[in-house]
Each structure stands twice: as C-alpha cells, then as structure tokens.
Specification:
Layout: H1 2-16, H2 20-34, E1 39-45, E2 52-58, H3 67-76, H4 98-102, E3 111-119, E4 122-131, H5 138-161, E5 175-179, E6 185-188, H6 192-199, H7 211-224, E7 233-239, E8 242-250, E9 261-267, H8 270-280, H9 285-295, H10 300-307, H11 311-325, H12 330-338
Antiparallel strand pairs: 1-2, 1-4, 3-4, 5-6, 5-9, 7-8, 8-9
Helix pairs in contact: 1-2, 1-5, 2-5, 3-7, 8-9, 9-10, 9-11, 10-11
C-alpha cells in the first residue's frame, strides 16, 4: 500500500514537470520515503551513447576529492552497468563490483540499487542509490522499476522542451579541459569555467565540478578497456536552447593509456542536435530520417526521391512530425531541430 501511494505521487510529479532537474529532485524525496538511502547519483544521459550528462547527486563529503576516481570506476564496472540493465538491480555479490570493491566499501556503503530510464527512443538517465547498512529488498527494487516506467517518458519530454532556437552566439574561443590518466584536472582554456558553471552551478565561492567532462573521459577509458563500445561523446542542453557536444580523446605520443585526455566542448552540429531532437520527440525511424533530409534544405520532391516514397507519403510523415514536435510548419520545425533561425 505504501509503495502504491508513493508511486501515485511520483506519477503526479512527472505529469506536472517541465524541468528534468526539478523532476528528479522532487521524485528523490518521494523515493526516500519508502526506499531509504544514504546517497544518490541520478544522471541524465545522451540518449544514443548513454554517457552521463547532467548529474543530480549527493555523496558523502569525504568522497568528493575522489570524484574523478569514482566516475572512472563506475564506467569500468561491468556489474549492474546501466547500459546493460533491463530491470532494477542490487549488488547481489558486492565484491564482484569494481567500484564497490575499490572505493565504496571503504566509505561504509553496503549495497547499491541501480535502475535505468530507457525506452524505444534511447537511454535518458540512470539512478544509483547507496545504502550504508543492510541491503535493498525485492519490493524496493520492484518499486524502482515502477518509478522508471512512470518517469522515462516525462524525462524525455523535458528534454524535448529544451529544444528552442538558440539565442546565444557560438563562442569562437576553444573550450578544452585537460585531464590526467586518472581524470584529475590539469588545465583548461579560459572559457571553460563559465561553461562548467552553467552546466552544474556550484555553491557560492566554490569551483564548478566538471562532472560531465569526467563522464565523457571515463567512457573513453571504458572503450579502451573493452567494457563498452559507444563513443566517448555526450550531447547536452546548456541554456536558452543551446546544445553542446563534449568529446574525449587521448593526446600525446602513440595515444598511450597513461596519456593525458582532452575533453573538448563545442556547439552541437545541426545533424548531432537534430538526432537528439528526433529521439526526444519520439519520432519513428523513417520520420527521423526525413527530418535529417529536411535539414539539408531538401524539398518534398527531393526527400521523396531520396527515401523512395511518394510525395503524399512524405506529407503524411510531415504531419505526424509536426504533431509529435508541437510545430506547425517546416520553418519552426527546422528552427527547433537545428537551433538556427
């Protein structure tokens, strides 16, 4: 009964939400009423690469200096990795988890419940709840599964709502963060601090935490170690309709695994941005393909020829796209999809 009532409150929060961060904060309060936890990490993800982008986290203060290591171990841990989860899971054998064995157990964590927010259009978020003392039981995991089912569509809808025509001009200065092999910050270009502050505003007088840069760099390490094969890339909303792409790459002779890592930040290309927009709005595969053709300036006849469709079928697809994206004409559709007026 207590889980059912909590789930109803979660559903109401999701239905009313317009911002994914506020949604997560409110839902964590409801989860905590029925599933006690000591710490949490709830990160949005790039829907295609599943790389973490916008974390909402509360971890023990003594762990903050170890944050780069924590994220690196999270990406290298195969046990209950969010990219392979099909249902909420706990650490049945904690010692099998690299991140628990190498770090979390030393801070009193006795169990971790993990759940992914995924639908047919992509992976939108993952949530880890840490418990210090005891383990998560079957009913608690079932409740977390119900929360994921109730909220995934609303998280995706909040992402779709962030696609507006980007008002801010592109920054011509390079935005680069340099990390060592352990993901510790070695240096950054001058605009980087402003970007990081806007992505994850820190408390007053504190430096911003480059969490998304750590995530992208950790994905690079995961690819190198054969844990995952998605590229070290993440696209995320900055502000006012502006979307960014972060990439990680080794630098130095031979791209050795102990070489430094450069994380670059740049405005999403129209194609990259449109791909996320199509997923966020729930477009079918052929609708997403049609939209990409439109971004090249193709007219109905050209699109029909490229896709081996009749012009009437193209128009039918367009009507469906307008409905799903909340737009009324091609100009508005392309403005939202590409971020340009």
């Amino acid at each position: 009964m207590v889980f059912a009532a909590a789930l109803q409150r979660v559903r109401r929060i999701g239905e009313a939400a317009t911002d994914s961060r506020a949604l997560r904060a409110a839902v964590l309060g409801e989860i905590g009423r029925v599933v006690p936890f000591a710490a949490h990490v709830w990160a949005l993800t790039d829907p295609e690469t599943s790389v973490g982008t916008a974390p909402l986290a509360a971890v023990p203060p003594q762990l903050m200096p170890d944050l780069p290591r924590l994220i690196r171990l999270k990406y290298l841990t195969r046990v209950n990795r969010w990219t392979g989860l099909t249902a909420a899971a706990r650490l049945t054998v904690p010692a099998d988890s690299l991140v628990w064995r190498e770090l979390l157990h030393a801070h009193g964590v006795t169990d971790v419940a993990s759940v992914v927010f995924r639908d047919r259009y992509g992976c939108w978020a993952f949530l880890d709840l840490w418990r210090c003392g005891g383990t998560f039981d079957r009913d608690e995991l079932a409740f977390l599964d119900d929360v994921a089912a109730a909220l995934t569509g609303h998280l995706r809808r909040c992402e779709a709502a962030s696609f507006t025509t980007a008002g801010a001009p592109r920054d011509p200065a390079p935005v680069v963060l340099l990390l060592d092999a352990g993901l510790r910050v070695l240096g950054q270009t001058s605009p980087t601090r402003e970007y990081l502050t806007r992505l994850l505003p820190p408390p007053a007088d504190l430096e911003p935490v480059p969490a998304v840069a750590y995530n992208v760099a950790a994905q690079l390490v995961a690819v190198e170690e054969g844990v995952d094969d998605q590229p070290p890339l993440a696209r995320l909303h900055l502000a006012a309709g502006r979307w960014l792409t972060l990439r990680a790459a080794r630098i130095g002779p031979g791209e050795r695994p102990d070489a430094q890592i450069a994380v670059t930040v740049e405005d999403c290309s129209p194609a990259e941005r449109t791909a996320v927009f199509a997923r966020a709005c729930g477009l079918a595969a052929r609708e997403a393909e049609l939209l990409q053709h439109l971004t090249t300036g193709a007219d109905t006849r050209t699109v029909a020829a490229r896709m081996f469709l009749s012009e009437n079928t193209v128009q039918d697809h367009l009507k469906s796209i307008f409905t799903k994206t909340g737009t009324r004409n091609r100009r508005v559709l392309l403005s939202r999809a590409t971020g340009t007026a």
